[in-house]
Amino acid sequence: MAALRIFSYLPNPRVWKATIAARFCGVDVEVRGASGKELRDWLWDYDAHPLTEQERTALSSLARTGRVGLTGAQLFKTDAFMAAQPFGNVPAAFGADGKVGIFESNSIMRAVARLGEAKFPLYGHDAYEASRIDSFLDVSLVFARDSQIYLLALSGGTVDAAIHARAKDAFAIYASGIEQALSPRRETLVGNGISIADICFAAELALFMNEHARTEQLGKQGLEKILHEGVRDEYPLMFAHFARLVEHEHFAPDLKPYVEKLLSKAAA
């Protein structure tokens, strides 16, 4: 039995925070899910699975209206799911017994790091390092919020100058901080080894790269990409660190194909 089970739309770089951490720590993590559109036809539960037509009829009382990302969709969420996941969102993680729910990708990643701390100290070597790691994770939440609003607006065709400007400012603040943290020529964000701060950073930047797939939508609004051609020159240490992480043996299985696909869209 897996130490942690995660249910989410896929692919999702925020889920990969946990799977990357699991490779470092030797923790057994199971991931269940499908594309966002397909999740409309799943039972949202610890035992998440595609619904049969018979189940859809029998469980009609469980139907709830989706919100962020699945706005207006009819989603089948069990009472047990809502008890474990009070905000009703994905990614949703469960402990081995299926009763303890863990929500928000950074917290799910932290759970993996705690479960495997004896094998690899992803959460730092002492309280000070752990708290500095938390600082990076907290800052990432601010960037992630604006990033999500921006990417959803791009995919939904509702992006405008105000949303773009907010995301651009959020990226500049986040990237400037990461650049400063890597000066002078540090190899990791905290301490002398990779931590969950680095994992979170890599996943959030990979997710933001979905902007490359929405160039046409930006052009229709007269907007330029935030990840423009010269952005690597503005934050050379950050992008060098990202490139190293993408090639790392524990990051590459999840991130490398995803990043390469998005970079090919940028080149096109």
Description:
Helix content is 51%, strand content 12%. It has 268 residues and is α/β, with parallel strands linked by helices. It has two domains: 4-115, Glutaredoxin; 127-267, Glutathione S-transferase Yfyf (Class Pi), Chain A, domain 2, CATH 1.20.1050.10. The strands form two sheets. Strands 2-1-7-8 form a four-stranded mixed beta sheet. Strands 4-3-6-5 form a four-stranded mixed beta sheet. Helix 1 packs antiparallel against helix 7 (196-208). The protein is globular, with a radius of gyration of 19 Å. It starts with a strand and ends with a helix. The mean pLDDT is 94.
Listing every helix as H and every strand as E from the N terminus to the C terminus, the arrangement reads: EHEEEHEEHEEHHHHHHHH
Describe the global form. Answer: globular
| Alpha-carbon Rg, integer | 19 Å
- Unreliable spans are none
CATH class of the largest domain, please? Mainly Alpha
pLDDT averaged residue by residue: 94
Helix content: 40-55%
The total count of helices amounts to: 11
The total number of structural domains is 2
> Which strands sit side by side, in order, in the main sheet?
2-1-7-8
CATH architecture heading of the largest domain: Up-down Bundle
Strand proportion, as a percent range, falls in: 5-15%
Task: Sketch the major β-sheet.
Answer: 4 strands, mixed
The fold-level CATH name of the largest domain is Glutathione S-transferase Yfyf (Class Pi), Chain A, domain 2
* First-to-last CA distance: 44 Å
Structural class based on helices, strands and sheet pairing: alpha/beta
> What's the number of extended β-strand segments?
8
